[in-house]
Amino acid sequence: MVIPALIEHKRDGRALSAETWATLIREYAGGRVPDYQMSALLMAVFFRGLEPGELAALTDAMIETGDRLRFDGHPTPVVDKHSTGGIGDKVSLLLAPMVASCGVAVPMMSGRGLGHTGGTLDKLESIPGFRTDLSLAEARRQIDRLGCAMLGQTPEIAPADKRLYALRDVTATVESIPLIAASIMSKKLAEGLNGLVLDVKTGSGAFLRETERAIELARTMIALGEARGCPTVALLTAMDRPLGRACGNALEVEEAIEGLRGSGPADLMAVTYALGVEMLLLVGAATTPDDAHRRLEEAVRSGRALETFARVIEAQGGNPKVVEDPGVLPQAQAVEVYRADRGGVVAAVEPRRLGRAIVELGGGRTRVEDSVDPTVGFVVTVKPGDPVRAGEPIASVFARDEAGIALGLSALQEAVIIGERGRLTPLISHRITARGVEALADGV
Length: 444
Ligand code: URA
Known about the structure:
Oligomer: single chain
Number of strands: 14
Helix content: 40-55%
Bound molecules: uracil
Number of helices: 16
């Protein structure tokens, strides 16, 4: 394979054949193509895009570098959800046990924090003892027993994606629709699902900020899923403010548990239920949206969802007492209340600024090998459009020390803008299926 000729071909805007993509990815995963050549090719893709045939070949080639979860003969349907990433997005922690409690298997395979966004694995690992590095065999056994496992991308799943992802992260080639779509879908399609629901974030805190680009990403992923026998649906949800109130690993676990007790913040619960409804409908576990909603509500009201979460935590080595007593979670050394510096209306709560501050506080990574402080973060109790009085407490900072508190307070001052007016954009703006894009008239 003459790699420079392939790079040149793509650089000049021409398509590579499916066979070329298959060989290239196989050779790269086997360590026979150097990172510097792959980086140049990724940059060419970033600027030139991929034709549908190339995208399909790339995705299939990435899946083929690894193994798959197999659910042949499994007695229940299998469904998962994937979020493109945000701040305060702890939906997976609620959704996996809620949907599993409705009799549908959920192999929730998640990622770590990335850039300014948080990751489900880091959140789960703030529960003392919790192990996310399950093998595929362990995950399968746990799903047979409990209907749910919450794990990271194992070395067996799409290993080419793992290498490519790390390379993209350091070569400014993350924000490419075909590369994001191939990356996400190669992992999800290797899970052997009967259905996949995508939570595609849009707004200033999302990787793809503009609604049109978020819709294009959703359509690209749906086409890949549907063509491979995995019915796929997407909801476009707002990430121009944090989801819920808590932002930061252990703080978000605590809020997720409140949600599983039925008392989570309204926006968090609305997104969780909307995605859960799609999951149940997609695999035929409910007949109508109302029926699906009722089943999920019943799973929460009866305590079954919380019980499932506790059993998953215990099965994965964590301390299940956390669902009764959030004091089991590691606690921040320093906490300080933030008060509105003037009266008015909240114009913005800028999620990207809060996400970056969490990384600076030690709650996220700047290098792959960094460890994460689970205790730090923010609880922000206001949303755009809320009236506030001068001096009113509107947020808290959780940090390691006084320097962290100062950093957090100054981030809040920049992130929470108080003005004369403010407006909440629709929380769930579009529903996208293989049939098309449905704008949800007034949003939710
Ligand atoms: N999440 C992924 O898994 N891959 C991407 O490329 C972006 C977000």
